[in-house]
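Subject: design request, 291 residues
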């Protein structure tokens, strides 16, 4: 019996050891944090060494739902989290310009309100441009080109670039850009509605490393107050960060899809690390995974 027990214990240790290698904790840190008056779920994801990557499913494609597209793609992948992305209209399609892996989903650039143009690259990175600055840099015919995506001629150049580079693109609220708060109080144009919120911030820490930070607020708060509290928290002198490249809003209204996982592939059951809408309700999906 002792031999059998020892063999079983050794096997169990081996399995746990193997599973634990899915994620390296130095790249992924998860915590509950007090931000102003709000307790939030925070996930810090380091892009150092290119282990942590991003994928975005913008819409149903050829009759295949976002849920099924995700399930097919995620087979054999180490998923860190998935979250609903941007807003969608009555037709189920995303609001604003949207391109899915080089295929145009919504051709219309939203000219007001959605100032963040997010670009998810096929290589697993993400960048955001402030459309109000009209200075997005792309390469056209081997020539660096600056485009104003809200200008029709430039928009066509950008769409052609995105299609040829299999890029994924969506628009959403821009909350912070280069350390500057971009969300406004309700009388400045943003909704005064209080709701749970979820943000994605891409920051630089004081060692120069890039980290993606998912911040999930369960308390009811306006977009402005939530953005202001997190902006001040991330840039506080005691923070590990010294720069916010951008912070964007992730939809928690019409779709509040959010699940996160540990290194063994187990779902985190804590309320600050989950949403209220099942995966089947996703109209679009932002996914972080580990390689």
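Subject: RE: design request

Done. Sequence follows.
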């Amino acid at each position: 019996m002792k031999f059998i027990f020892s063999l079983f214990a050794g096997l169990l240790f081996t399995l746990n050891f193997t599973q634990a290698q899915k994620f390296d904790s130095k790249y992924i840190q998860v915590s509950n944090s007090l931000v102003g008056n709000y307790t939030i779920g925070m996930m810090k994801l380091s892009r150092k060494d290119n282990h942590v990557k991003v994928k975005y499913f913008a819409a149903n494609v050829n009759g295949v739902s976002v849920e099924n597209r995700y399930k097919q793609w995620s087979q054999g992948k180490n998923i860190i989290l998935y979250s609903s992305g941007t807003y969608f209209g009555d037709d189920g399609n995303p609001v604003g310009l949207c391109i899915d892996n080089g295929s145009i989903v919504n051709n219309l650039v939203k000219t007001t309100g959605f100032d963040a143009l997010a670009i998810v690259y096929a290589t697993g990175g993400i960048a955001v441009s402030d459309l109000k600055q009209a200075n997005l840099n792309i390469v056209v015919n081997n020539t660096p080109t600056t485009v104003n995506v809200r200008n029709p001629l430039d928009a066509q150049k950008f769409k052609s670039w995105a299609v040829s580079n299999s890029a994924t693109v969506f628009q959403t609220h821009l909350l912070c850009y280069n350390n500057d708060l971009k969300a406004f109080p309700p009388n400045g144009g943003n909704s005064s509605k209080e709701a749970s919120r979820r943000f994605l911030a891409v920051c630089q820490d004081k060692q120069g490393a890039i980290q993606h930070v998912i911040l999930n607020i369960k308390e009811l708060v306006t977009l402005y107050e939530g953005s202001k509290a997190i902006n001040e928290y991330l840039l506080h002198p005691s923070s590990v960060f010294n720069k916010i490249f951008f912070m964007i809003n992730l939809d928690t209204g019409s779709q509040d899809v959010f699940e996160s996982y540990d290194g063994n592939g187990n779902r985190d059951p804590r309320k600050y690390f989950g949403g209220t809408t099942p995966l089947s309700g996703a109209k679009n999906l932002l996914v972080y995974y580990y390689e």
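Residues 1-21 have pLDDT under 50 and may be disordered.
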